[in-house]
Amino acid sequence: xxxxxxxxxxxxxxxxxxxxxxxxxxxxxxxxxxxxxxxxxxxxxxxxxxxxxxxxxxxxxxxxxxxxxxxxxxxxxxxxxxxxxxxxxxxxxxxxxxxxxxxxxxxxxxxxxxxxxxxxxxxxxxxxxxxxxxxxxxxxxxxxxxxxxxxxxxxxxxxxxxxxxxxxxxxxxxxxxxxxxxxxxxxxxxxxxxxxxxxxxxxxxxxxxxxxxxxxxxxxxxxxxxxxxxxxxxxxxxxxxxxxxxxxxxxxxxxxxxxxxx
Amino acid sequence: xxxxxxxxxxxxxxxxxxxxxxxxxxxxxxxxxxxxxxxxxxxxxxxxxxxxxxxxxxxxxxxxxxxxxxxxxxxxxxxxxxxxxxxxxxxxxxxxxxxxxxxxxxxxxxxxxxxxxxxxxxxxxxxxxxxxxxxxxxxxxxxxxxxxxxxxxxxxxxxxxxxxxxxxxxxxxxxxxxxxxxxxxxxxxxxxxxxxxxxxxxxxxxxxxxxxxxxxxxxxxxxxxxxxxxxxxxxxxxxxxxxxxxxxxxxxxxxxxxxxxxxxxxxxxxxxxxxxxxxxxxxxxxxxxxxxxxxxxxxxxxxxxxxxxxxxxxxxxxxxxxxxxxxxxxxxxxxxxxxxxxxxxxxxxxxxxxxxxxxxxxxxxxxxxxxxxxxxxxxxxxxxxxxxxxxxxxxxxxxxxxxxxxxxxxxxxxxxxxxxxxxxxxxxxxxxxxxxxxxxxxxxxxxxxxxxxxxxxxxxxxxxxxxxxxxxxxxxxxxxxxxxxxxxxxxxxxxxxxxxxxxxxxxxxxxxxxxxxxxxxxxxxxxxxxxxxxxxxxxxxxxxxxxxxxxxxxxxxxxxxxxxxxxxxxxxxxxxxxxxxxxxxxxxxxxxxxxxxxxxxxxxxxxxxxxxxxxxxxxxxxxxxxxxxxxxxxxxxxxxxxxxxxxxxxxxxxxxxxxxxxxxxxxxxxxxxxxxxxxxxxxxxxxxxxxxxxxxxxxxxxxxxxxxxxxxxxxxxxxxxxxxxxxxxxxxxxxxxxxxxxxxxxxxxxxxxxxxxxxxxxxxxxxxxxxxxxxxxxx
Lengths: 262, 779
Fold this sequence. Notes:
The structure holds two protein chains of two kinds. Chain A is 16% helix and 45% strand. Chain A is built from five helices and 13 strands. Chain A has a 13-stranded antiparallel sheet. Chain B is of the alpha+beta class. Helices cover 64% and strands 8% of the residues of chain B. Chain B has 28 helices and eleven strands. A four-stranded antiparallel sheet of chain B has the order 8-9-7-10, sandwiched between helices. In chain B, strands 4-1-5 form a three-stranded antiparallel sheet, with helices on both faces. In chain B, helix 7 runs antiparallel to helix 8 (237-260) and helix 24 (655-686) runs parallel beside helix 27 (726-756). The longest helix of chain B is centred in the N-terminal third of the chain and has 35 residues, at 200-234. The radius of gyration of chain B is 32 Å and the shape is elongated. The A-B interface holds A 48, 50, 52, 54-56, 83, 85-86, 89, 91, 105, 107-110, 112, 114-117, 119-120, 123-127, 193-195, 197, 225-226, 228 and B 60, 63, 96-99, 102-104, 118, 120-126, 129, 170, 464, 467, 505, 516, 518-525, 527-528, 530-535, 538, 544-545.
């Protein structure tokens, strides 16, 4: 029994594994928030509300299909109902970690599909307070993640993770995410600008289980510096519908199949 | 007669009066450190004024910033080279880090949204995300800049030598501090570029600094000059100190009150110390008379009493006239003018209170031998100054008709000049030509689209209207119409985005630089644009419901008239091209126009009010409308002459000058009051009917007081001729010339007019003894 200490170490290992790293927490969070199911469909109602309370409406059907594991490639397809004059407009994103997305837009008024450069993931998503990154995720490897503390949001226990960009090209300073310890959904996120001022606040306002996937069906992003906010509600949310890969093509941008966009 | 008992009390208990004044002055003095300044031109009009309410609403609807600092970068070799672009990128990066800067909406090469098509791909994003690493990229930047009409004259000058970074500030940010930090940032860059830092916050800050300079440096210098002048006149240090002490105390009381009630110091009230110092010189009449009386009686206390009796009536009425002249300003619409009026009215009342308390009290402390010495020098001086004044009165008195005729001719010329007066307020012109602000403004105006910004808000009566092709085309047409005007440098509207996107979607084909034919296309273009652009890009030009559109109009001049021309042109365009919309102007340029018109309205109203009030006071002072009319003449003459000069010189008639026109009535009338009161007293005292002799005596004796008063007044204000802001200089020149001219004209023309109208004027019985007690005493 000369190697008795190995057993002790082995006995301690599970405990070490339990002590989650910041990066792992954010990975799990990304998987739970942006990658649940093989595919996903929802009718999304976005209210863009300025500081005087004036509202603008965006209504669209959003379809998503994962190519593989969480953290991998994804395809998004969006069909707009509102505002009225953009009805039939469609928008498609092929998302690749670690390189620029491909984006296409169909402009029905001139019957034209146009590729759109995706040089800036931090630009606004359809004029809302969400950026493309907020909607489809930021590469975990781009930031350093540290669990700063644990804290409750409402009655949910959370990890509080501070993420700081590794490079200098990010347009924000850092962000702090409250990740639900049980289901890893981000319940709250604060984004800070480079001057260290808090400028955006994300909150998951209502979480419900759909096909056993905990889903934030109501969420808000508020720009604290302008007072502008965007409230998002997911209605008719569903997972694992068997959306075929061929849907995510230029051809269907012009004529999306009825069954998928209602 | 409260004032007489006040004088008696002050002579009996001088220590108490002085001590009480000192204590009160210290009390007011404690308020001074709390001083705040307000240099925001918007605060000229009340917050509830239509133009400010509307402008705030426009700012809100179109997410506009109240304050923007413009950083101009200019290089004779052009800014489109790797070195300069590298500097611009670095500078912008540093600016974005500054607290208080609305970073998300900073617009410069590295941040402004550009819509382009490259290899069939639509690109909406920052024009130059980073400094270009190669010449090829510099070249493509050049093409992007000059290929996009949205950029020319906005962030690049047509000759490529000037660019600008627009730095909007968050509400409540300290513009002065940020401007200073930007100064530091550009100072770190070594290169051939010139940097201009301009914009409202910078102008305001400079303005504030100059105001402090006026109050902190020029007012004391004015005080020193007055002190020296008084000393030369009376050769008695303690008397000179008394006058200065009285002036200082009145200034401290007034400024202490202003600051104490929490009001900020504004351009007008910053001149209050100089005004009060000058108004304080009215007590020169007390000293003047005191010296004469003392020389006659050699009894100090008796001389004080008699002096106070002799001058009390004119001094009271001149104070009343001055206070009333300023109090008229309380009825004006422009806030700083109102505050200024109240401030000086208060100060004048305080000064008069001192005249009947502090001055007699201090006079009791003055050593008799010193007075005797001073009085002797008075008599010595009498020979020169008084003789000159006598001679002036002689000219008027012996050749009244000729004098009057010359006056009429001058008057006609002056009226012609007055009709040429051009009311205009140009805030940038308030700075001297060589000042950093004027230089920056001139450079930016020359290179780019213009620094003065106005908006034309186009309002439809239903939502989504601004997506209609006819509406967007109408906007486009309006822009072209406005751009034909010489004062308009650049215009900018939602039409520019629509056209740009149309072109870019069609492979950058010039043919498509036009408004598309369907509402759907426009809606979809703008939606597409909003998907990637900064939210503010679209918000700045259309409201969220697309019912209102905002046309930006950059003007090449800050003259208020420029915006009036724009509004007229918009009206004409609307008549020629009917569309169910209304156009409402807004923005700082529009504010300046409204303010300018308020100044004009205020001037006319204030002037008429002052004319009436001063006439009533004259009539009360003389208990005769006839005498009031005569007393009026030199005053009107003076003002018309000065207006005539202003008109012929082509100087803009702006707010400070218009305020002065009102005030000058109240200040210049003093001389007439002194002259006529003392003339009539003289006639009554001597019982003589020799009008000419009485006139000559008046010209020589109280006339000397008038002369000294005018010289002192002018001396104090002459300092302002060297002040750093042009309104101060204008005020200085106006007052100096007005005081000297009105003293001269009072003595000359009152003599002439009284001689001419002596039958008409003197037929009435002299005022009863009870009404003017002074006349019963010997003189």
